[in-house]
Amino acid sequence: MILTLTPNPALDLTCTVDEVRAHHEHRVQQVRTAAGGKGVNVARVLAQLGVRSLAAGPLGGTTGGLLRELLDSIDEISQAWTPIDGETRRTLTVVDRSGATGFHGPGPHLSTAEVAALRTDLTLLLEAPQDAGADVEAVTVSGSLPPGMTASALAGLVRALASRGRPVLVDTSGPALLEAARSGATVLKPNAAEALATTGTRTPLEAAAALADLGPHVVVCSLGADGMLGLERTEHGSRAWLARLPEPLGGNPTGAGDSVVAVLASSLLADGAALPEVLVRAVAVGAGAVARPVAGEIDLALAELLHPTVEIEEIPCP
């Protein structure tokens, strides 16, 4: 089982239109509502891959109740939310032929007591031998931080989770990414833009190396249409690989990164597969996510079809 922590969950509304045009009215062809937030998307992808997960994070209000109800229908997902006074946020994504446009609010403000309660709930969950947490093999921490949760508070969560003997994968950005790197995260999974902005380096490979120098064993950077970069620290130094499709795939990239996190958590951390093998699978599954209109879903048939076509090469480390 994978514990998927979402610091800032959301109820996601996805609308499909022909073309997004600023300052114009649009005729919506399809509307989809789904439980969201990056960690929730990870849990939903894991369910489609046949992997059980435990969704956790702060949840509150009517929106939080709707999110919980939507997840209740997925057998592979258990839930262990920490109640808060605020209202869980809603997000809007508009998809047209050229891609996706997202509108994401900041989320509810968490009090100091609510942040502390979240940390207590998670640590007690992993410590209780008779609880569902006893089956947790790895932890993912995904997405933005809500108001009231600082980067140092996230670092405290990562330290607490790692100290309970579970590998921790973090997918976030900015100061929170650096704090997670220094606080015991096993794997980091930023996209290239986030990694470059956080480290001030010139290339994704340099950014991955700079992040790995702070402590994580593996750093994986999503490169969009250019594929995926993975760097691994070993006792003999560092090794890096680049995996990509022969041809870029168009579609909705909103949930592609979350599908990559799902593969990394289940294959690399839980199953102990080799990083090159995991990168190949992550690229294929990420492409399967791009083909779907809603984040948290994958086209499994397409992912299986693309898997043998993924190209991977080892590249020199800086």
UniProtKB/TrEMBL annotation:
Transmembrane feature ranges: none
Keyword Nucleotide-binding: yes
Keyword line: ATP-binding, Kinase, Nucleotide-binding, Transferase
Keyword Kinase listed: yes
Pfam families, per the entry: PfkB
Domain spans labelled Carbohydrate kinase PfkB: 12-293
Highest taxon listed in the record's lineage: Bacteria
Database matches in NCBIfam families: 1-PFK (TIGR03168)
PANTHER family the record matches: 1-PHOSPHOFRUCTOKINASE, 1-PHOSPHOFRUCTOKINASE-RELATED
Family to which this protein belongs: Belongs to the carbohydrate kinase PfkB family.
Protein name per the record: 1-phosphofructokinase family hexose kinase
Originating organism: Brachybacterium sacelli
